[in-house]
Amino acid sequence: MRLFTRKLGDKAGLPPGSVVHVGDASDEEVRITVLDYNADTYTETEVTDLSKLELAKASDTVTWVNVSGIHDTATIKEFGDRFEIHPLALEDIVNTAQRPKVEEFDDYLFIVLKMFYPSGDGASVLSEQVSLILGSSFVISFQEVEGDIFDPVRERIRKGKGQMRRRGADYLAYALIDGIVDGYFAVLEALGEQVEQTEAELLENPSTATMQTMHAMRREIILLRKSVWPLREIISTLQREELSLIQEGTLRYLRDVYDHTIQVIDTVESFRDIVSGMLDTYLTSMSNKMNEIMKVLTIIATIFIPLTFVAGIYGMNFEHMPELRWSWAYPLGFWIAILIVGSGMALYFRRKTWL
Amino acid sequence: MRLFTRKLGDKAGLPPGSVVHVGDASDEEVRITVLDYNADTYTETEVTDLSKLELAKASDTVTWVNVSGIHDTATIKEFGDRFEIHPLALEDIVNTAQRPKVEEFDDYLFIVLKMFYPSGDGASVLSEQVSLILGSSFVISFQEVEGDIFDPVRERIRKGKGQMRRRGADYLAYALIDGIVDGYFAVLEALGEQVEQTEAELLENPSTATMQTMHAMRREIILLRKSVWPLREIISTLQREELSLIQEGTLRYLRDVYDHTIQVIDTVESFRDIVSGMLDTYLTSMSNKMNEIMKVLTIIATIFIPLTFVAGIYGMNFEHMPELRWSWAYPLGFWIAILIVGSGMALYFRRKTWL
Amino acid sequence: MRLFTRKLGDKAGLPPGSVVHVGDASDEEVRITVLDYNADTYTETEVTDLSKLELAKASDTVTWVNVSGIHDTATIKEFGDRFEIHPLALEDIVNTAQRPKVEEFDDYLFIVLKMFYPSGDGASVLSEQVSLILGSSFVISFQEVEGDIFDPVRERIRKGKGQMRRRGADYLAYALIDGIVDGYFAVLEALGEQVEQTEAELLENPSTATMQTMHAMRREIILLRKSVWPLREIISTLQREELSLIQEGTLRYLRDVYDHTIQVIDTVESFRDIVSGMLDTYLTSMSNKMNEIMKVLTIIATIFIPLTFVAGIYGMNFEHMPELRWSWAYPLGFWIAILIVGSGMALYFRRKTWL
Amino acid sequence: MRLFTRKLGDKAGLPPGSVVHVGDASDEEVRITVLDYNADTYTETEVTDLSKLELAKASDTVTWVNVSGIHDTATIKEFGDRFEIHPLALEDIVNTAQRPKVEEFDDYLFIVLKMFYPSGDGASVLSEQVSLILGSSFVISFQEVEGDIFDPVRERIRKGKGQMRRRGADYLAYALIDGIVDGYFAVLEALGEQVEQTEAELLENPSTATMQTMHAMRREIILLRKSVWPLREIISTLQREELSLIQEGTLRYLRDVYDHTIQVIDTVESFRDIVSGMLDTYLTSMSNKMNEIMKVLTIIATIFIPLTFVAGIYGMNFEHMPELRWSWAYPLGFWIAILIVGSGMALYFRRKTWL
Amino acid sequence: MRLFTRKLGDKAGLPPGSVVHVGDASDEEVRITVLDYNADTYTETEVTDLSKLELAKASDTVTWVNVSGIHDTATIKEFGDRFEIHPLALEDIVNTAQRPKVEEFDDYLFIVLKMFYPSGDGASVLSEQVSLILGSSFVISFQEVEGDIFDPVRERIRKGKGQMRRRGADYLAYALIDGIVDGYFAVLEALGEQVEQTEAELLENPSTATMQTMHAMRREIILLRKSVWPLREIISTLQREELSLIQEGTLRYLRDVYDHTIQVIDTVESFRDIVSGMLDTYLTSMSNKMNEIMKVLTIIATIFIPLTFVAGIYGMNFEHMPELRWSWAYPLGFWIAILIVGSGMALYFRRKTWL
Q1: B10: which DSSP letter?
Q2: Which of B196-200, C325-329, D304-308, E121-125 is predicted with the least confidence, judged by mean pLDDT?
Q3: Among C88, C105, C295, C330, which would you mutate to test the B interface (most chain B Cβ atoms within 10 Å of its Cβ)?
Q4: Chains near A, with 3+ CB pairs < 8 A?
Q5: Stretch C70-97: mean pLDDT, rounded?
Q6: Measured between beta carbons, which residues in chain C are less than 8 angstroms from residue B203?
Q7: Fewer beta carbons within 10 Å, N or C terminal of chain B?
Q8: What is the distance, to the nearest Å, from the Cα of residue D42 to the centroid of all Cα atoms in its chain?
């Protein structure tokens, strides 16, 4: 995850509602797919010419238009003109640095969300911005790249599984949000495993790599929090306010996804506490290790440095050193002195519980 | 306690209300016991065939159905169909990663709780999910495994002790919640003793094991908090809202259990502060120890290294070293110099309060 | 102060309202004293037979019944039966692990408080639970052991000093609460002096004992906070709610004691911040000391180790070492080399500001 | 600033409203000055006999009575009796440990504030308690010692500068509060300079004194916070509530001083964050220094200890050491070995970026 | 960014509404430019004589007066007198230490904001105070120095781009605020890059400079927070309150800039968390490095000190040292002993995973 989307500053000075893409450049073609369904019928088409797309305000079918690829601002603008989407909403759709939010416009609700999924190799977490426009009988969704996160929803529509086909556009919007929140759990699971692994590593054999993993996890958690807290606000707004676009029957489902969001937040906060505790543990374990290293050095040095001094004395070349001539000086005197000093030191260290 | 229930991500993409078991696999048989009582009568049966179980909405007895074993989703589903439990509630019952919560449905209240108890050997804390469905004259409780936490309640019903038999289903639900909260105290007591023990250890003779215990306690506290805070919310909801299922007379009891919950939270938060303070103390005591070790090394090295140098000088083989020939050089000159240098150093260290 | 009152878990499974003593066992006799007074009269008796005690609901005197010793649950129960005290209140009176709280019953207010006082030797803080039952014309107070904290109030009643005798039972309750809050100030003063002493010690000559004192203070503060915050809630409840038992004129006095409570909280929080800052200072001062120790070692070792090496070279017994034979090698060559190396090192250390 | 005003506990047990001086003893005479003014006239007198002082409730002049010296409780009591000030207010006036607060009485507002000013030598911060009683046409102010903080206000009244003389007693009270808040800025400025100085010191050449300064600043900030937060509450109360004593036109001025208070709070909180960050930086810089010290020691020791060992070998007196006899052993063999080992070590350290 | 604007204390004692410049002295000439426009016409003039400037309350054009240079208090005062700006507002305009705020006056809104921009060399962040006065048909803006932050707005007016020319003074005020908030993003981007760079440095090769950069970033973040949080309050006030000066149609735009402010706050808070995490990581990495250094020292010392002692023994000059005479003592006995001791130590260190 990046800390901050670059080049946002380029927008400075432009009038509000300027549709300028902020995010990774992409060569991908914009793809627009349309799913039109009700309990009985179901059609799926791909649109290339926007002028042929119609979104009736009152309709007996629900229409889901999915746009993948938001770097093509021309198409987005055309979209906006055709379906009377407010320029400020368009601006937010193509600005991938947008904070998750919900906004009520006259005829529709505009929702910006962040999607998270593990990268291909599972080593890091990727994020993508998803915008939803919920009208009375349609949902328009905008994705950065074509992904498979909405596939289960699509599948449910195709197969007529669950209540999907019997319910309105608001339920479809709920299903999409639910799919995104489900994605958070996958990321949390991966993160949870990493936390547990790192914790085991930490208690057994901490290394510099452990520290770097902890740092990376901490950072990931900070960025996750930044997306998860506004998400809670969004769903809470959808539930609480008198939004005519949300039907009574969908409220319980929104409550369910709200509960999930709270659970995500709880888990992220727990992870945060745990990782911060791990850093403390790491620091103390480093101190412990250092103490052990220093004990070894001190014991060895404290025993041998005085002994070496004694040996040094009798290595001196003074002419008048009577001890040197005594017969038992070396075999008895010297070795006994050495033994006494050495074992005295050892006893001292044992009393200090260093040995 | 596990950090995160694995395999939750498997549910991603399923329609809401899918009854998928999330948690530890289990081979245990599902057991359904039914207790039917009022102030006068009392019957206890075990049910194997769900179709024979009846839960009259209006009844002059209170019926308590206890289901232990929620891994058998087929039975749970049958249960749901038979007693018209909302699919979203069923989904939560079998999802052991569910956050504690209360939800109001048309005819019943749905409550999810976490139960905590010390493991057999007392070394760690185990948790289990308990769900309650409170109707006008019945309570259905779902446990992960058959446990003895509800036994005191069962006993009170059997013996007709207290007010149990004279009161309605809401009082039974209260009694079950009260039993679960009592379990928290047992866990806190065990944790409290561990905290005190570790604290004593910390101040007397901290070791690497102390650090690991502190880390484990911290983690346990984090996970406890995650369950305790929503519990407070739940009981507060039960008390405050105009829930027709809760009778006036039960409110005071709910207030009592609410007080207990607050006390649990206070204690958990105190433990958290204390353990975090212990980590600081540990770190400082490590620093202290290190300082002491280094003092010993420094004192020894600082006294003997210069002395060894002096001895080294007179161990040199230069032909023209006049000192070597002086008669009193060694017995007087050398030893006096040594004594002066040595005691000078000792004085210096004493002035620095290192000795 | 103990971290957690043991044996609380023994209560698990008992029906609510079970009067079980939780706390320190005691052999002391229960003593019940009764003070009956109004502006004109005043009687003081000791009661041994509860059946003779009367508490008229409407009365022109205020009756204060003080019960010291709550371990005798039989007496407490008899009390409860006689004066129609709710079993849940009785349960809380004898449970010394109860959190401070206020609860409104039909005819009376039930208040649980914690009293703090320094231990005899002033080294630690003791706490005791005090419960009050405030009726229309009586106050019943329950203490763990007979103490002198209520003596000033008693004295004021006896002497008719202040407004005590002219006011009702609610004023008496206020006076008792005020006495308890005054006790907090005494504890805070003692703690404040200890904080200042430890701080001086910390900046002058920190030792392991300093660290242990800081740890103990931190723990004491954590436990104080746990009692003080609910106290604020209690007095705020007494003030704000429409409690018919509290007369208009007493409100200003409650506001006064509320201010005191806020002041206690402010002071406790300041102490907390200060002690946590002291720990940081201690850690940095340890680092400082270590740096100084290491500097001494490094300076000595870095100067003498190379010199010893040089001396070692000329102590070698090679037959062909021409230097050994030069006349001025030792008196000039060697000593000059030594001086240059030694003073070079000293200069280097001075440049590093280590000397 | 003292941590805690001593001897507060002496008040324990006294009835509420006892006028007992808590604070530093003082020999100073109490001085009472009276300023009486309106837009046209202006008189300034010093009062020695309280019985001659009159405070008309309705008056066409504003009367400002300033009392400096609150240790003389007799005078304060007489004051209270004469002008019908509530005993609880009197008690707070003479208790310098009182928390800042505002209280509404029947005919007047009672305000307690803390004043801060740098000590004479600028090294520390002194605080003083100021109490204000605001009536319909008078303000009574109580100071601990005679100070110059109200001089600018007095001057403005004398010179008729600004709106002072054209406005009522509430504006006078505002002007006094404004003067006190201005004093906070002076203290903050001094503190800010100290923070910047210490910061520079910290990054260039941190010493033990730096640490002690940081500790002192942290403590000062904690005590400042304790006074500033309640101040905000006070001014907010003066503004928001329907206080008949505050006129419409004064509200904007109160809002201005409220803004200043928020600014003081913001600045104090920033200082707190900065000082806490400085402590972290100090700790890391200590670690850095230690690492550098240890590197020097390790490099020297690691290079010379093995070399000394080699020299030691050839200083041995074994009879059969063939190397000793080889002609080139010393001039070539020994020195080349030494050079290889020495430069090998140096290279190793360079690779580790220690050199 | 400076911690605290100096010389604020000079204002102490002045009556409220004193127009005293607080901030950097400047020699720049005050420049007043006037832009008068509506959908059709557009005039741009520079004013030198204030008496010729007219601001009609009701007008069919919007007039934007920009004043750069607020150090010339005489001009500001003249301004105030002429256009009836409240003295308290004038005081705030020239006090660059003012906290961001919005205040409603009878005929206009007064807004104080902080502008941030990177310094010329990009190494630090500069801030400037901007005040806005929004009337029914005019906006007066005050800048400290002439800058280019409002140029894009000016350009849009000139070119008639966007809706600028078709909308009222409130939209102009919004556009100016929006421009200032856009400036925050530029600063955040620069900060974000610095954070990422420092993070990379930290994980690869931390140095003292890294620590100083972290300290500087932390400080910058603290000061940014101090400006950003009140900004949120301001825009929220503009939106929420019933301000007749803000038209319905502008509210959505204010909501947009509000969202941006929240995003700025979120990002600043994330940066704060990340930088604080970096400090922890730095400290642990220092500990790691120290451990490694100490390992090298300990290994070398522990292997060679005992060996040197052995060599020392056989360098002694005792006459009776039989070992010295054995033929194989040196070539075999000595070297084998050395090898055994040396490799024993090496094995020991390998078992401790130090090698």
Answers
A1: G
A2: E121-125
A3: C330
A4: B, E
A5: 88
A6: 212, 215
A7: C
A8: 37
CB contacts, 8 Å: E210 with chain D: none
- Dist CA A188 CA A178 (whole Å): 15
User: Which is nearest to B17 in space by CA: A252, A86, C168?
Assistant: A252
Q: Which of E6, E293, E296 sits opposite D291 (nearest CB)?
A: E293
Reply yes or no on whether the pLDDT at A241 is more than 70.
no
**Taking CB atoms and an 8 Å cutoff, what residues of chain D touch C319?**
324-325, 327
Residue A323 pLDDT: 83
In angstroms, the CA C336 to CA C329 distance is 10
Alpha helices in B83-207 (DSSP H): 87-94, 151-159, 169-204
| Cα–Cα distance, E2 to D193 (Å, whole number) | 11
- Pick from A147-156, B210-219, E147-156 the range whose average pLDDT is largest: B210-219
Q: Kindly state the average pLDDT of the residues E163-181.
A: 90
Distance from CA of D8 to the nearest CA of C (A): 7
- Considering only the beta carbons, identify the residue of B284, B302, B315 that sits closest to C315: B315
What is the per-residue pLDDT for D1?
47
What pLDDT, on the 0 to 100 scale, is given for residue B245?
A: 86
Q: For residue C296, is pLDDT > 60?
A: yes
Q: Supply the pLDDT for residue A248.
A: 84
From chain E, pick out residues whose CB is under 8 angstroms from the CB of D263.
97-99
- Residues of chain B predicted below pLDDT 70: 1-13, 56-58, 120-123, 161, 241
3-state secondary structure chain C: CCCCCCCHHHHCCCCCCCCCCECCCCCCCCEEEEEEECCCCEEEEEECCHHHCCCCCCCCCEEEEEEECCCCHHHHHHHHHHHCCCHHHHHHHHECCCCCEEEECCCCEEEEEEEEEECCCCCCEEEEEEEEEECCCEEEEEECCCCCCCHHHHHHHHHCCCCHHHCCHHHHHHHHHHHHHHHHHHHHHHHHHHHHHHHHHHHHCCCHHHHHHHHHHHHHHHHHHHHHHHHHHHHHHHHHCCCCCCCHHHHHHHHHHHHHHHHHHHHHHHHHHHHHHHHHHHHHHHHHHHHHHHHHHHHHHHHHHHHHHHHHHCCCCCCCCHHHHCCCHHHHHHHHHHHHHHHHHHHHHHHCCCC
Please answer yes or no on whether A12 and E183 come within 8 Å at the CB atom.
yes
SS3 D73: helix
pLDDT for res B131:
94
Between CA D62 and CA D44 the distance in angstroms is 12
Query: Residue D142's pLDDT is what?
Result: 93
The partner residue sitting opposite C211, judged by closest CB among B284, B302, B317, is B284
pTM for the whole thing? 0.85
Residue with tokens 């020791």: D301
Nearest to E284 among A9, A286, A325 (CB): A286
DSSP symbol at B100: P
In this prediction, residue A141 carries a pLDDT of 94
Q: Which amino acid is at B132?
A: L
User: What is the mean predicted confidence (pLDDT) over C22-51?
Assistant: 84
Do the chains contact at E11 and D182, CB–CB below 8 Å? yes
Do residues B69 and B146 touch, judged by C-beta distance below 8 A? yes
CB atoms A12 and E179 under 8 Å = yes
Residue C227 distance to chain B (closest CA, Å): 10
pLDDT digits (tens, 9 = 90+) for D35-65: 999 888 889 998 888 777 877 666 788 999 9
Residue the block writes with tokens 């008048």: A320
| Cβ A186 vs Cβ A262: under 8 Å | no
Residue C40 has a pLDDT of: 86
Please provide the average confidence, as pLDDT, over all residues in chain A: 86
Query: Which residues 6+ apart lie within 8 Å of E79 measured at CB?
Result: E50, E67, E85, E90, E140
Band (pLDDT 50/70/90 cuts) for residue A6 is: very low
